[in-house]
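Researcher: Let's do a round of design. I'm pasting the structure tokens now; please hold your answer until I've finished.
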């Protein structure tokens, strides 16, 4: 079940858009308002992911394009900012860290995304390939502890040359490559194409297209 909300509130004469929700599985997605378009500023979001006994939660950073503002913490019990037990900060996440997934060990995982009135240089922008993406669209699943987590992808796995997309049941992930690129990880393209013998590497090396 996913309970989510987006609303505007006023604090010190500045309109603040709030979003987030309570997540209790079995799978779903977490995204910024209007993804992949620009989200309203300032923005304050909080998602609470609960994992029942005998299960584990996994969050996959499939389409994650921000440099700062996203933090995670896990708790033994969490009701609100004034009442919680056993907090462990998991730190911040940005797309440059190449993080593919995170698996909390406590029942409650709280994900926060806070951005002030100006965005600054916080999102991935690659104009040459018509990619101008704001925010994130990540997925999660809650599965039995004995079950292996789903092999997923991310913007890094797709060589920054394609989008990582999930199937409707969140059990399969694939890279959808931009025009002119192909391969399981979008690693082949105009300057590295084994289909036509294009290989810029020397001394027996194998090339791979990566936009970073």
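Researcher: That's everything. Go ahead.
Model: Designed sequence:
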């Amino acid at each position: 079940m996913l309970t989510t909300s987006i609303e505007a509130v006023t604090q010190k004469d500045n309109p603040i858009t709030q979003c987030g929700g309570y997540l209790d599985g079995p799978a779903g997605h977490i995204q910024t308002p209007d993804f992949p378009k620009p989200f309203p500023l300032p923005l304050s979001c909080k998602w609470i992911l609960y994992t029942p006994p005998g299960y584990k939660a996994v969050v996959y950073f499939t389409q994650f394009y921000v440099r700062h503002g996203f933090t995670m913490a896990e708790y033994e019990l969490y009701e609100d900012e004034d009442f919680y037990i056993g907090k462990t900060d998991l730190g911040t996440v940005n797309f440059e860290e190449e993080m593919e997934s995170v698996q909390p060990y406590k029942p409650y995982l709280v994900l926060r995304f806070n951005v002030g009135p100006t965005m600054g240089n916080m999102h991935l922008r690659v104009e040459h390939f018509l990619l101008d993406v704001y925010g994130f669209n990540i997925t999660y699943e809650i599965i039995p502890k004995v079950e292996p987590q789903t092999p997923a992808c991310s913007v890094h796995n797709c060589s920054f040359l394609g989008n990582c997309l999930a199937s409707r049941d969140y059990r399969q992930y694939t890279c959808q490559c931009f025009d002119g690129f192909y391969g399981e990880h979008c690693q082949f393209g105009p300057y590295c194409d084994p289909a036509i013998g294009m290989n810029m590497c020397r001394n027996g090396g194998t090339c791979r297209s990566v936009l970073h």
